[in-house]
Specification:
Protein name: Stage 0 sporulation protein A homolog
Enzyme class: transferase
Oligomer: single chain
Catalytic activity: ATP + protein L-histidine = ADP + protein N-phospho-L-histidine
Distance between the termini: 68 Å
EC number: 2.7.13.3
Helix content: 40-55%
Largest sheet: 7 strands, mixed
Pfam family, one: HATPase_c
Strand content: 15-25%
Length: about 700
């Protein structure tokens, strides 16, 4: 039945769907999955001091941990308590040791069923002096057990026992000739027998398969989730788990038992090998120790290689997922922000303008959240590098303060700035990262400081003993809501928020300060925080910066909306109707003529079918049907009959925003890469750079 509902192992599609992830998230520490198994089947499952142990519970822990499901084992002490739990649908969510005769039986009970995860074979347990005749066979008071004894030992007298452990003990004491139990039970008992009088024989038939059964009151999709986790486990997992309980243990035979069981071997050992025992023991100890050490080292190396391979695969999957999610989220964001901007320029009424401003504010917040998640991922994966360039720290600080002054519009907050007048030398810095650190801390100060409060910004340049470095110290204080001393130890952790209502009241998910800490660490600096509840917070940031004689990159002098691009002809390759409409309207506002291609193939055809000089610039989306932007760019650059194809500016305008996406655009032959949602000022500046 499970193969009709869930994917089989041949498909190897082990990734969880969004719906399955939602189901998994329902089972937390506060709402765990209640798990049941038989406490009387050592070593398969048993209760030891109130804890469920054994091969089956250990196997379930592996797959539940893999799936990310929180769980809690029910702990029946007897078979009767186990059966009572089985009948109680309100208490038991899943039974992990179900042996079903047919799948139809599970359907009639409205159970969800996983794939089989263990096949149990029977073993016959006897004494070593067993003569092959079974006059008395042990059994327990269970229908299945009685039917097995009837089939394996027809006509034999049955000795009734309470547990299977008692069954095998009765055979050891000579009260019965044989016991029929599951293979690992037999192996565990015989290997732990200290008398050395017991043995077992593995039987090919019958065999029994066990599955996990989901209660009729629970979502049966759990069966599919657990089945996927089973398929992800190593093929020999059950054998590895069983080895922990059934490993052979040296027996402690008495001299009389040894002589009785092995008289010939005893005589030979005493007469021939006795004098070699000491030498052999010493040699074997050394060889065994060396072999174990070599084996342990080899296993450790193999384990580390496997872990590294899994980590690399997980990293690739994570990057691919975020790349697709970034594209899919930025595309509609481009439409929302673009149309809002267009609507704002059409003299809306005060009521409509108010709504548009709220839409714009919410859009900017959502875009900021997307960027935070992507930035954090880049840092963790090591793809975001610290790339310092000659820079003027004063200009970087000024740009951060200008941004914050915009945040203070319509707020009654006293903003104090304390800066040294001394000239700060040019340094090697990453302007974007340093500005992000300052803006993030200052924006939090604005967010968490009520009207009437005060924010103080201090910047000091400190010499570092003539070693070619300076230390820039920034101290940002506010009289806002503050935080507890305990939370100041957690503030730089991802998704950290002190109060449950902070996210709702102040809008945020707790990524900003985590990113700030990682940026500061990347730049070789330090950051500290002091805060008291209801009194305010102070952040101190120290960044070491190397002094340089090189000229700084000149900052952008700003952009004028009065730029006139009349007569500039653009070919816009964009498959999304909304994005195409937004870009066309915004470009035409600057006097440009825009012709649209619906995909990469159409863009190549339009360019080829128009004479040289028709288009001054090509604006190219990347992810398009028929032919993507990379392929279209390469096709245009490779036109032998159109030499202008090698030189016409081609600018990527795409929702793909990862650094590797930027590099892919440049590698395909594009001149520049702009990420959606598009900022029309940036688009016009880029066009001006290549066209005029």
């Amino acid at each position: 039945m499970y193969t009709d509902v869930y994917e089989s192992i041949e498909t190897k599609n082990l990734e969880y769907t969004e719906k399955e992830k939602s189901i998994i998230s329902q089972y937390s520490k506060d709402n765990p999955l209640h798990v049941l198994c038989d406490p009387t089947r050592y070593p398969y499952s048993y209760n030891e001091n109130g804890e469920m142990k054994g091969i089956i519970p250990d196997y379930f822990r592996k797959i539940a941990d893999y799936a990310g499901i929180s769980y809690e084992f029910l702990t029946p002490a007897t078979r009767d308590e186990y059966i009572a739990y089985q009948k109680n649908k309100e208490t038991t969510d899943i039974s992990i040791d179900a042996r079903l005769e047919t799948d139809n039986y599970a359907e009639t009970k409205k159970w969800g069923v996983t794939a089989p995860f263990i096949t149990m074979q029977l073993a016959r347990v006897t004494r070593r002096d067993f003569d092959g005749k079974i006059n008395v066979v042990t059994t327990v008071d269970q229908t299945v057990s009685n039917s097995i004894e009837d089939a394996m030992a027809p006509g034999a007298e049955k000795l009734m026992c309470s547990t299977r452990q008692e069954m095998m003990e009765a055979v050891r004491k000579g009260k019965a000739d044989a016991a029929f139990v599951y293979y690992y039970m037999a192996q565990a008992f015989v290997n732990s027998d200290t008398t050395g009088t017991m043995t077992y024989t593995l039987l090919e038939q019958p065999t029994f398969t066990y599955r996990m059964v989901i209660s009729s009151t629970k979502n049966h999709a759990l069966a599919g989730i657990l089945t996927k986790a089973m398929y992800a486990m190593p093929q020999n997992l059950v054998e590895d788990l069983a080895a922990q309980y059934t490993t052979y243990k040296a027996t402690e035979l008495t001299f009389v038992d040894w002589i009785r069981l092995h008289p010939v071997v005893t005589v030979l050992v005493l007469l021939i090998f006795g004098w070699l025992l000491t030498a052999m023991a010493v040699t074997m100890v050394h060889l065994s120790a060396r072999k174990k050490a070599q084996k342990a080292a080899q296993e450790k190396a193999e384990e580390m290689a496997e872990l590294a391979e899994h980590a690399q695969a997980a990293n690739k999957a994570k990057t691919a997922f975020l790349s697709h999610m970034s594209h899919d989220m930025r595309t509609p964001m481009n439409a929302i922000i673009g149309f809002t901007s267009i609507a704002m320029k059409n003299n809306p009424s005060d009521e409509v303008k108010n709504c548009l401003e709220k839409i714009d504010e919410s859009s900017e917040y959502l875009l900021s959240l997307i960027n935070d998640v992507l930035d954090l991922t880049h840092i963790e994966s090591g793809k975001l590098k610290y790339d310092p360039v000659p820079a003027d720290v004063k200009n970087i600080t000024d740009s951060a303060l200008d941004i914050i002054k915009g945040f203070l519009t319509n707020r009654d907050i006293n903003f104090k700035i304390q800066r040294e007048d001394a000239k700060i030398p040019n340094v090697l810095a990453d302007p974007a990262r340093l500005r992000d650190v300052l803006v993030n801390i200052l924006s939090n100060a604005v967010k968490f400081t009520p009207d009437g409060g005060t924010i103080t910004f201090e910047a000091r340049c400190q010499e570092k003993g003539g070693d070619g470095y300076i230390n820039m110290r920034y101290r940002i204080s506010d009289t806002g809501i503050g935080m507890s001393e305990e939370f100041t130890k957690e503030i730089f952790e991802e998704f950290a928020q002190e109060d449950s209502d902070v996210r709702t009241q102040y809008h945020g998910v707790g990524l900003g300060m985590a990113i700030v800490k990682k940026y500061v660490d990347m730049m070789g600096g330090t950051i500290s925080v002091q805060s008291k509840k209801h009194e305010g917070t102070t952040f101190t940031v120290d960044i070491p910066l190397e002094i340089t004689d090189k000229e700084c990159n000149k900052s952008d002098t700003g952009f004028s909306e009065k730029v006139n691009l009349t007569g500039v002809n653009a070919l816009l390759a964009e498959d999304n109707e909304l994005n195409a409409e937004i870009a066309t309207v915004q470009l035409e506002e600057f006097g440009m003529n825009v012709e649209r291609a619906v995909d990469g193939k159409n863009a190549v055809e339009i360019f080829r079918n128009h004479p040289k000089g028709t288009f001054d610039v090509i604006l190219m989306d990347v992810m398009m049907p028929e032919m993507n932007g990379y392929e279209a760019t390469k096709a245009i650059r490779a036109m032998n009959d159109r030499p202008d194809g090698k030189n016409i500016p081609i600018i990527a305008m795409t929702a793909n925003s990862f650094p590797e996406d930027v590099q892919a655009s440049l590698d395909a032959g594009m001149n520049a890469h702009l990420s959606k949602p598009i900022v029309i000022d940036e688009v016009i500046k880029t066009i001006l750079r290549y066209v005029l």
